[in-house]
Design brief:
Two copies of one chain form a homodimer. Chain A is an alpha/beta fold and 484 residues long. Chain A has three domains: 230 residues, FAD/NAD(P)-binding domain; 106 residues, no CATH class; 120 residues, Succinate dehydrogenase/fumarate reductase flavoprotein, catalytic domain (Flavocytochrome C3, Chain A, domain 1). Chain A contains 14 helices and 21 strands. In chain A, the strands form five sheets. In chain A, strands 1, 2, 3, 7, 8, 9, 10, 20 and 21 form a nine-stranded mixed beta sheet that branches. The longest helix of chain A has 19 residues.
Chain lengths: 484, 484
Amino acid sequence: MATKKVEVIDASEVARWDATSDVIVVGLGCAGAAAAIEAARAGAEVLAVERASAGGGTSSMSGGVIYLGGGTPLQKACGFEDSPEEMFKYLMAACGPRPDEDKIRVYCEHSVEHYHWLLDQDVPFKPVFYPHYSGEPPTDDGLVFSGNEQAHPFCEIARPAPRGHVPQIPGQAGGLLMKKLLASVERHGVTIRSDSRTDGLVLAADGSVVGVRVRTFGESATLRARRGVILAAGGFINNDAMLDLYAPLLKACKFRVGADGDDGSGIRLGMAAGGAAINMHMGSISLPIIPPKKLQKGILVNRQGQRFINEDAYYGRLGEYALYHQGGQAYLVLDNETFERPAIEREIVAVGETVAEVERELGLPEGSLQQTVDLYNRHAENGCDPVFGKAAEWITPLVHPPFAALDCTTSGSLYAAFTLGGLRTGIDGEVLTADGDRVPGLYAAGRTSASLAAPGYASGISIGDGTFFGRRAGRAAAGSGALS
Amino acid sequence: MATKKVEVIDASEVARWDATSDVIVVGLGCAGAAAAIEAARAGAEVLAVERASAGGGTSSMSGGVIYLGGGTPLQKACGFEDSPEEMFKYLMAACGPRPDEDKIRVYCEHSVEHYHWLLDQDVPFKPVFYPHYSGEPPTDDGLVFSGNEQAHPFCEIARPAPRGHVPQIPGQAGGLLMKKLLASVERHGVTIRSDSRTDGLVLAADGSVVGVRVRTFGESATLRARRGVILAAGGFINNDAMLDLYAPLLKACKFRVGADGDDGSGIRLGMAAGGAAINMHMGSISLPIIPPKKLQKGILVNRQGQRFINEDAYYGRLGEYALYHQGGQAYLVLDNETFERPAIEREIVAVGETVAEVERELGLPEGSLQQTVDLYNRHAENGCDPVFGKAAEWITPLVHPPFAALDCTTSGSLYAAFTLGGLRTGIDGEVLTADGDRVPGLYAAGRTSASLAAPGYASGISIGDGTFFGRRAGRAAAGSGALS
């Protein structure tokens, strides 16, 4: 896909405005929909521009998990205790080397309220906990563990609680979520201009953003925003040139989680207007070694035959460690007792009656895998893993032949990736420069903005922060004064 | 140090120009000096703006190593064979997951010419090879290995040749280098405006950069550039806010390699004018476990008691692996035969008659270090290291008690860091947007631009690419037509 360029346009050069609204929202995935709804609720006239023929974006293709907590009615109904403090502790530990404390705080404090807002948009949640594994449930159950809450070291930092809230429909729930949000967008009287790609931001002489330029079926139009423009146009996983420039490692991942629209145009528009883009090298990288969960009893090893992580960590953490720290070279080693056919196809790349045979077949240094298994087994006899801290439940000595290794390399197996970098924003979605100043009139949300969780992704954070901060951006834009 | 903000200024708002020149160079480190000299040689009137009282910048505080090759007279005089092709192969392998092939190609093809240019600026090189270790020689010898050329896997990819060219003076040679370059700047009739901090870029209505605003002793002045502005104002290792935003891991490093001016102002100016900043999370991170070189015979282990790299890799690679992949947690384990007092102070954090004792004292998982040493020793008996590929010369079984561990953690030992991220530029230093378009009239060089080597730093790349691409920027700016 060739990259379409974007640019800023001087307002003095706009001959006429083809339409005018208080707030213009660019992109109608979950973040844009939430922004449009809230801007309208706050009394603004809202125009939403969507490049596809209908809204939905990547959100509608997703699992629909929403990371919420702090004691939501759903958590309570399922018998789980949670608090904003525990959620805050978890996210501060999980969200990378420099977590955005301000955003995490407001996100946790208002998470229960956000759950109620979703109910108000008719998003249904079935009060049943799905216990069988973390991530996206195949059932219509409403609550699931969707991160590293139960795994070392996080389980020692914050009391684990499941926070993946899943709209009630079997399997992928993103479609249902977006159907409900888009219906609410319509109910709130938002004007939708579809099939319209935004390729320019219109700037007033003082640098404030006062409109957009869109292309609709080959025709350009300029649309004026009296109060603000909200960029919610997704990330850049489908823009190879941007991946080369900012996040080349993600190109190794076979599966790119994103709609065509995830070409970074929103981020580039914001940068062209002076916004800083941060966390641009970061991605959410899933390496799903489960289900079945039993496979966590195996050990993940690198090209040196060494373990590198507790295998019961969330698949987003497994992928991050395997790609960023092991060059995408990993194998899951199992014995006859722990082996089970993986739900997501994964080739058996070595089998042997002894670990030494598997080691040889994988071409690992002589003795390396053998000693790794020896040490693992020695501690497994005592039900512990002092090296990486895997939970006792998933520890068992690997001693029953035959032994096998499953391919967990980027080249030979499924890694699913999307980008987490984007425009720097404040807690109301306001776009900021590298100096921390506002770009007046400009907001961003969803993957067009830098994520709450980068790295340290948990399923549901993207839709969670997209809708949550999208709403705040919508309210802020609606409430701001008229622009120059 | 509080961050000073920068901004873009509309040319129509400039009441008067306090001075005018063809080319304005911002910053007089090695990149700015090279740019100024070449712009002047190309016939342009040049004004150089320097925030300190005199030029020199970080370059003058550095080791002064310049990464050159392809068969320079110095390499030949020292008896080493090299070619642009071998140099190209090395840099393509060493310069990260997505090396800038265009820049590396032109850098290698013209490296011999660049050496002669340095001679023309009276920079002296003594035709003697310093063999005792890689990096910066304590003598006045002129040639040294300054990267991973001799280490696995690079020695198998390209024929090793020393490429660290060091100006002739004992110890740190950056001062001499800058003295010579600044003398040449003066000889070429460049006007120098010192004590002047550049805090604004002046943009014409079409977005082209036509001047700068500077602060000199509390007074603002606007300076017009007829043909172009070259930003050569260093990196951002001394800007905590930018480190938090872009490269938080670098903050763990005790020693920051940079002048006060390395506050990212050049990068922020370029971003404000529409330039894209790339590689912003990357740094050069030195973990000098040598000299003496004998210490490479030890093994570097992490908190899991595992090795993670061939210990004979260049100290820039050791630091990168230890910080980025091991969280800055590393120890150098030695036996009585391999131990020697390190030249750079490094605390002994564990001693024992057995490896098990050292393991316990370090608080490593039981058995972990013991098995790592066992495997290492088993292969060391055969003089090989199939796990990480250390060269035979540095391999010996670690079997002579007592055993000791030297502190190589970020918290307890010296890591030296500077930033490698900066403005995206083409091969003539022209600043580019995220879309790959030029910002007319704007150039960048040195650490204000994204580095040739990121990650995969070799000593001498920074001064090498700074002077090389600085020169090209100077010529390009001088040769461009008058701006609007």
